[in-house]
Amino acid sequence: LTIVKQFINKILQVSIAYENLNKYCLIYLQLKMGFLSVLKKMRQKEKEMRILLLGLDNAGKTTILKRFNGESIDTISPTLGFNIKTLEHNGYMLNLWDVGGQKSLRSYWRNYFESTDGLVWVVDSADRMRLESCKQELRVLLQEERLAGATLLVLANKQDLPGALSANDIKDVLELDDITTHHWLVVGVSAVTGEKLLGAMDWLIDDIAKRIFTLD
Predict the structure, then answer these.
(1) Does 79 count as an annotated binding residue?
(2) Do 100 and 13 belong to one domain?
(3) What residue spans of 86-164 are helical by DSSP H?
(4) Residue 118 assigned as binding residue
(5) Where are the alpha helices (DSSP H) in the chain?
(6) pLDDT one digit per residue (tens) for the chain, 216 residues
(7) Residues 89 and 151 occupy one common structural domain
(8) Domain identity same for 60 and 161
(9) Does residue 55 have a known ligand-binding role?
(10) What is the model's pTM?
(11) Same domain, 32 and 68
(12) In which domain, by residue range, is 25 found?
């Protein structure tokens, strides 16, 4: 009888511990959701976005950044680290990060993933020899947990050059139709002339705004 009582007491202790654990888990989830709600409200008030520009070297990332910011593009040099621009556009404060695309620098891309709202993947549409590498690098990026949910804008750059593949061709080569984890759009642009660049960036900003500035 004593053994039975001890066994019952053990069961009761485990049951109470399990119930307390459930309570703590519920409290944790409530606190977490409350914290996320506060962060979302803060971001909604500030209307701030973090946008990351990536792509292989010589794709035109820095030229795109300068063109979008209204700067001169007469002198462009390879980005050996990163460039950052903060500017206001359509009522939003944009933090734009342009990171070097040389092969030796790509392992450092992950240092810039945190809190990214939008990913701009810049493609040299005239560099057919490296499109396969371009596709593989993009695939790796889209598997990154810290980029989950980020809006993807693929810029098929250098449309002003003879022999450049169209946006539709780039879509097929990169197999963008297979992407189901991110909102995405591909646009053929020219960083040199500015063709379609503003419209593409406006789409990106609008898509991000609908996602992060809409409170449930």
Answers:
(1) yes
(2) no
(3) 131-142
(4) no
(5) 2-46, 61-68, 131-142, 167-173, 197-212
(6) 565 555 556 655 555 554 555 555 555 555 545 555 545 545 555 689 999 999 999 999 999 999 999 998 887 777 877 889 999 999 999 999 999 999 998 999 999 999 999 999 999 999 999 999 999 999 999 999 999 999 999 999 999 999 999 999 999 999 999 999 999 999 999 999 999 999 999 999 999 999 888 644
(7) yes
(8) yes
(9) yes
(10) 0.79
(11) no
(12) 1-46
